[in-house]
Amino acid sequence: MPADRHGGESAPSGETGRGFRPASLDAVNFLLADVRGALGPYLNVFLVTQQHWSQSEVGLVTSLAGWLGLAVQTPIGAAIDATHRKREAIVLALVVLGAGALCIYLFPNFWPVLIANTLIAVVGDVFGPAVAALTLGLVPQRLLARRMGRNAAFDHAGNVAVAALAGLVGWLFSQQAVFLLVPVFAVLSSLAVLSIPASAIDQRRARGVEASAGGGSDGGAGDGEAVSGMGILVHCRP
Hints:
The chain has 238 residues and is an all-alpha fold.
């Protein structure tokens, strides 16, 4: 089978989403790496060194956000699995993420930071399963491993890029200005997500029907087949 110009095998017509351009998914993974976690540990350093918070205050804020983010991972994953509006879910999460970072920039006090950081932790659970579901719905199973590897490559490249950019912004302007990168990249990420046509996403394949039920190349399955619900957590040991 001939190779395409993106380094993978060219899929037969009907296997990849109509109108889907691999560069769009590349951009999503690259740009989301820049906003996921709202610059992560940088917040802790900023609060201690610039806002003179105590380590106990920083620990309380980050611990509460982390615990709540961990608690909602499963229901958010289930919601992403169920909805056909996966692109919109990512965009909504990006809106909250950008607003949270802007709140921290404007009001770096205890309660605003606690609320904003908690919301950021919650919506941060959206990106992983949503991007994975989009990839499943856009790429046939036989090309999935290559595509997931490509996702990871662009994700890591984005991490390196934002680290360098954050250092540059902090050096040229201020450490507080680094938080303004988040809403900027949230807008760019939203544009990248919306550049993927909704019609290109096979919604049944995005829920793993092809992998679990042996569906055809179009990702379809018999009308009577159902996708596992929350009960799978109790009945399936793996």
